Structure formats: structure tokens, C-alpha cells
Amino acid sequence: MMLRRPFSVPDLAQSLAHSIRAAVGNFSQAPKLWIRKALDLGITAGCDVDRFCPDETVAKGALAVFVVRGRQVAKLGGVDNYFTDYSPFPYYPDVQPSNPWFKWIQKAHELGVFTGTPNPGCDAGNYCTHNEITRG
């Protein structure tokens, strides 16, 4: 079995920073530019056609999608929504293969992003896909 280095925010941050630096040369508008770049790269989408809404909530299942897409951009240079290299055996009892976020949560777990540590309102060992977090 091959061990992979777990995903870290600096991987994505470095990739986005490089892209932004190439486009604008400085970071005076970094927060807006980072969001714009994440939108342009297909890592995330806005809350509607004109806005990102960083203070609104998103389901934890969607967080797995953002993280895996960010990792793909950092490593592959683009987003691959059709990947198949994840375990078919659920890491979390509340996320079965029929769940639309299953492959994303599986992959994020394999990248070392999610560990199954309990969080408020979630039973130990569960992922709780519909618990909400903020977008920003």
C-alpha cells in the first residue's frame, strides 16, 4: 500500500497564490481574488449567479466537494468530477454509497482531511453531511 501525504491547506493556498500572483502581481485584493479564483477553477460556486455569500452556511457534505476539488486543482491543474479511486467501503456509518456526497467524503477522508473526530451535534464516528458550516 502506498502512503500519500495528507492534504493540507498550504497545498491549495500555494496553488491559488501562484495563479493570483501571475494574474495580478500583488495581494492587495487577495480575499476577493482567492474567491474569484476558486470560482473560476470550479472548486466552488456562488450562492446565486452574482454572489459568493461567505457568511451563509453550507452543508458539511459540500465541504468535502470543495476540499477534494481544491486538492485536484493543486495536484492535477484542474477539477475531475469523475474520479473513481476511493474506497467503496464507507468510513462513516451515516454516509453510505447511495449518498450523493459519498465519493467526495471518502476521498477527503483518504487525503487525511477528515478523521471521524466527533463534532457538536454529530454522534461519534459519523460525518453528519447535513450539519452546516459557513462558506467563508
Description:
The chain is mainly alpha-helical and 136 residues long. The protein has helices at residues 9-24, 30-40, 60-76, 102-110, and strands at 57-59, 132-134. It has a two-stranded antiparallel ribbon with strand order 1-2. Helix 1 packs across helix 2.
How many distinct beta strands? 2
Mean pLDDT: 74
Number of helical stretches of at least 4 residues: 4
**Uncertain parts:** 1-10, 20-27
Helix content: 25-40%
Q: What are the secondary-structure elements, in order, as H or E? A: HHEHHE
Proportion of residues in extended strands: under 5%
Task: Indicate the radius of gyration in whole angstroms.
Answer: 16 Å
What's the N-to-C terminus distance? 36 Å
**Quick one: overall form?**
globular
> Order of strands across the biggest sheet?
1-2
Category by helix and strand content: mainly alpha
Main sheet record: 2 strands, antiparallel
Kindly list the characteristics that best describe this protein:
mainly alpha; 136 residues; single chain; 4% strand
